[in-house]
Amino acid sequence: MRAGGQRTLVTGGAGFLGSHLCDALIRRGDDVLCVDNFHTGTRDNIASLLGHPRFALLQHDVTSPLDVEVDRIFNLACPASPVHYQRDPVRTMRTCVLGAMNLLALAERRRARILQASTSEVYGDPEVHPQPESYAGRVNPIGPRSCYNEGKRCAETLFFDYRRQHGLDIKVVRIFNTYGPRMVVDDGRVIGNFINQALRGEDVTVYGDGSQTRSFCYVDDLIDGLLAAMESPAGFAGPVNLGNPDELSMRELAERVLRLSGSRSRMVHRPLPPDDPKVRRPDIALAQRTLGWEPRVSLDDGLGETIAYFRALLNA
Ligand code: NAD
Ligand code: UDP
Fold first, then answer.
1. Which is nearest to 57 in space by CA: 39, 33, 75?
2. How far apart are CA 74 and CA 117, in angstroms?
3. Which of 82, 77, 76 is nearest to 63 (CA)?
4. Which of 38, 58, 188, 198 has the most CB within a 10 Å radius?
5. What is the pTM of this model?
6. How far apart are CA 136 and CA 122, in angstroms?
7. 14 alpha carbon – ligand 1 mean position (Å)
């Protein structure tokens, strides 16, 4: 089907990634329905779209069934930061599982194509590095992160069962740590924490000894990857990793943020949260091969944009 001019539903559309996705879909000519319950998202994120003739907002919780006419569904509804998703873990699990079931039922009814925003957390604390899609992961089913990890794993299962059982046209993408403007200041995620601490002259809090690694993807690259995955051939369901393979330790990240923001904050150490993965880096060979996608924005450039965003927020 032709990209653009679709009726596209984005759940979690008022969140960090969802709002950037809505922007991109409006730019390409879609009619966009943003569904959100404002659990972690805000109206501010979509303020520039409210009133656009091809944009509509529906306040709705995906744990309840939904019936709308759509061609494409991006299912992003779910709190993504550990602080947010651990605050009410039962609610997180309900959003992952009931949300997936309700949206899959909608996709089946409308014969719509549906994409699930899954996560690198399905790999848990990995023993295989970097992580290819074929790696089944090492996930603790009973820890504080499990509501999210296992919820997202269950959602993947439901997506593939709907494909096998009902012939549904699904796409599953596994998103690795993504950052950029519109991240929530105090959601506890590392880039927001480090930048805001650095800009306020507060101590920069490195958890553990800071040797654990992550690989950060700038939001614009990630959105290009989501669009490419959604428009990939019908036979391709994934799962496919989307992320930037440029890996660094949290200590190096803190040093980078301090340098780029010109801050004189100190680096301090705080206890490492339980089950915190020691390494994380996507193997993106599949995305390169099947989607023709790879990230373009360097960490320094992306951090520069993000620092400028948070600086403007603080000054306002
Ligand atoms: P976010 O918290 O900014 O956005 C999530 C949005 O979903 C918010 O607007 C929130 O209000 C909404 N929401 C939550 N529960 C809902 C419910 N029950 N019904 C309706 N809306 C609900 O997070 P984000 O970073 O934009 O993440 C978006 C998606 O991408 C999530 O599914 C997340 O798991 C996935 N993801 C994100 C990252 C990342 O680094 N940002 C990494 C991996 C996966
Ligand atoms: N982290 C940190 N300081 C902070 C916040 C996070 O050192 O103020 C670490 C955290 O322990 C993890 C990494 O940064 O190792 C990424 O954390 P985040 O919560 O952003 O995402 P995760 O990848 O753990 O879901």
1. 33
2. 7
3. 77
4. 198
5. 0.96
6. 8
7. 9
Residue with tokens 């069934």: 65
- Average pLDDT on 92-96 reads 98
Please list the residues that pair with 270 across neighbouring strands.
207
Q: What is the per-residue pLDDT across 125-154, written as a single tens digit (0 to 9) for each?
A: 999 999 999 999 999 999 999 999 999 999
Strands 55-59 vs 72-75: parallel, antiparallel or unpaired:
unpaired
What tens digit of pLDDT does each residue of 25-36 get?
Answer: 999 999 999 999
Shortest-distance ligand to the CA of residue 244: 1
AA identity, residue 92: T
**Residues making up the chain, counted from first to last:** 316
For a ligand 1 pocket test, name from 74, 78, 87 the mutation site with the most ligand atoms within 8 angstroms of its C-beta. 78
Per the listing, tokens 């995955």 go with 229
**pLDDT of 103 over the 90 cut:** yes
Asked whether 57 and 9 are in contact (CB, 8 A), the reply is no
* pLDDT of amino acid 296: 98
With b meaning 16 or more CB within 10 Å and e meaning fewer, what string describes 8-45?
Answer: bbbbbbbbbbbbbbbbbbbeeebbbbbbbbebbbeeeb
Q: Which helix (H) or strand (E) holds 88?
A: none
Q: Please give the CATH superfamily to which domain 7-182+216-245+281-296 belongs.
A: NAD(P)-binding Rossmann-like Domain (3.40.50.720)
Q: Closest by alpha carbon to 16, among 61, 81, 70, 95?
A: 81
